[in-house]
Amino acid sequence: MMRELGRLKRFRRHFQVDAAVAQYVSGLLLDFVQVDNRFRIRNARGKRLEEVGEMLIESNPLLEARSFDRERAVRKHIGDHTLFLTGLFPEYVASLPRRGLRLDSMVDYVKAGKESYRIVSYFDQFEYRNEAPLFRRLSESFELRVYGLNLVKQSLEREQRDRYAKWKAQLN
Predict the structure, then answer these.
(1) Which of 83, 75, 74 is nearest to 21 (CA)?
(2) Model-level pTM?
């Protein structure tokens, strides 16, 4: 798996317009190789939040968020989580409305991701000043980033099929 992710150089081809965004999304993919990192957000009781709807509630300073820094951290994670899933696992996201009474069956992942990155970009003072423009660009081009991840997924799937075919041919 790490070797496959090491080939993320081709990923940068899809994002040549903005090297900082390509670097951020590449880092996101490497970070999310560890499944626990995808579910690092926990509520006040320590429960791991797996649904975007739960994360949205947790990010709201009028509901669960303990501070504006907490709101920013959770919103950043929502943007990352939704970008990852819509880009690499669109079939899963498309199946959510058919999965019964789950909070995420009513969440538009693209809208939640764009909005979350936009909110993160509003934190543009002090220690967040330099990061804010990156998150603004991620919000403005969210769909393009999803498309780029779709291309990366297709490339990885093609590579795996080709490798499997070679192994099979060697056995015959």
Answers:
(1) 83
(2) 0.85
